[in-house]
Design goal:
The chain is 31% helix and 15% strand. The chain is α/β, with parallel strands linked by helices. It folds into three domains: 76 residues, Alpha-Beta Plaits (2-Layer Sandwich), CATH 3.30.70.20; 136 residues, no CATH class; 103 residues, Alpha-Beta Plaits (2-Layer Sandwich), CATH 3.30.70. Helix 1 crosses helix 10. The two termini are 22 Å apart. It binds iron/sulfur cluster (SF4) (2 copies). One iron/sulfur cluster (SF4) binds next to helix 14.
């Protein structure tokens, strides 16, 4: 569930910006040594600034493409226009009228009024698309997914094209890895069946509610809508804490650990699509971590700062002040790289390639640190 502070930050952003910045989800705010600047690099208008422990989005420069929200590993940047829930609902509802064909179109081609708008979901730019919504639709029975662009070469968002291509490639690779047959396609014209002259026959006998539970398809991605609902319908205005007070080390000896709704939807959708047919998956969403125990001094900083708890101390370990084992759970890792960035011994590496048996196995990988050099211990508190 989103925290109350998340809700307030999103609610405050609704009127100002197409993107909400949830500051304490940003790993560069969490730790000044983070090298993550994915949002900064993808933003074409330099609207985002990230420096030690700070992130700032200049809404006056933001062109609302949504590209930053698709690359942030920790979901610190949340698209608001539309939200994930609104987009999922619109796509599922439209797909129910096209017998499972889900179509998304950018605002540019949409503005040409070539197709019935009830038969597709509109986004400002296709760069806003990411894995969780597309995979979720496939997992719920979409038999075809089409992204329609407005001929990007002459569009103000054209610099986002590599990001769109990355999303299509990654999604298709993830579906293929699970043995799924559906592929996401990107085209510059609406499929014939959506064109205004061809749509009349769709209403009636063919409108069978393929997605009987369109809202159900959106349920798992309802985080943003929940925030909006709580704020707008309940008028709930909780007291806002400062970021500093929220990012304190908890009693368990770690920084606060965060839920990752999009990440969870993605992995659950993959699980629903099928079983892995490959030994390894390479993607921007998952990672595997390895530790060189000959360099590691078991200080535990990696586990302390990991935003998801993917890397943590072995809870059954016999604790004095030393850490003897660390556990890594691949399905919880979001490839943020913070564990690597905070390791001052350079002992830790993060790979975008993950063995599928690790990704879908609840048993963590255990790193035995008994051989680690431990001259200076920074013990983690007991859980
Ligand atoms: S991509 Fe996300 S985690 Fe990385 S710097 Fe930007 S907001 Fe922070
Ligand atoms: S294990 Fe490392 S890369 Fe994965 S989520 Fe934790 S800090 Fe980020």
């Amino acid at each position: 569930m989103p925290s109350l502070d998340d809700i307030v930050q999103v609610a405050e952003s609704l009127e100002k910006s197409p993107v909400a910045v949830i500051e304490d989800r940003c790993i560069s705010v969490r730790n000044r040594n983070s090298t993550c600047r994915k949002c900064v690099h993808i933003c074409q208008t330099q609207a985002i600034e990230v420096s030690a422990n700070e992130i700032h989005l200049d809404a006056s420069l933001c062109m609302a493409c949504g590209a930053c929200t698709s690359v942030c590993p920790t979901e610190a940047l949340v698209p608001l226009k539309p939200t994930d829930a609104e987009l999922s609902r619109a796509a599922a509802k439209a797909a129910s009228m096209l017998e499972g064909h889900a179509v998304f179109a950018c605002a540019r081609i949409s503005s040409k009024h070539l197709a019935d708008p009830s038969l597709y979901a509109e986004v400002p730019c296709l760069a806003r698309m990411e894995e969780s919504i597309l995979l979720s639709l496939v997992a719920h029975g979409a038999n075809r997914v089409t992204l329609v662009d407005g001929v990007c070469d002459t569009c103000k968002y054209r610099s986002c094209v590599p990001s769109i291509n990355d999303t299509v490639t990654f999604v298709n690779e993830l579906i293929e890895a699970q043995g799924g047959n559906v592929r996401v396609e990107r085209v510059s014209e609406f499929p014939q069946v959506l064109l205004a002259d061809d749509t009349r026959g769709l209403f009636g006998s063919t409108r069978r509610g393929f997605f009987a539970d369109a809202a159900g398809a959106a349920k798992e991605t309802a985080m943003a809508a929940a925030r909006t609902t709580i704020e707008q319908e309940l008028g709930y205005k909780p007291k806002k804490e400062s970021i500093g007070s929220r990012l304190r080390v908890t009693e368990s000896g770690t920084m606060p650990q965060l839920e990752m709704p999009r990440h969870d939807v993605t992995i659950n959708a993959m699980d629903a699509i099928g079983f892995p047919v490959v030994e390894r998956i390479e993607s921007r969403r998952f990672a595997s971590v390895s530790i060189d125990v000959t360099k590691c001094n078991a200080c535990g900083m990696c586990a302390m700062f990991c935003p998801t708890g993917a890397l943590k101390r072995d809870e059954t370990d016999d604790v004095s002040s030393d850490i003897k084992q660390l556990e890594f759970t691949a399905c919880e890792c979001v490839q943020c790289g913070l564990c690597r960035d905070v390791c001052w011994k350079g002992a830790l590496s993060v790979s975008s390639e993950v063995p599928t048996d690790q990704l879908f196995d609840f048993d963590p990988v255990v790193f035995d640190l008994r051989k680690a050099n431990r001259p200076k211990m920074i013990g983690l508190g007991r859980r």
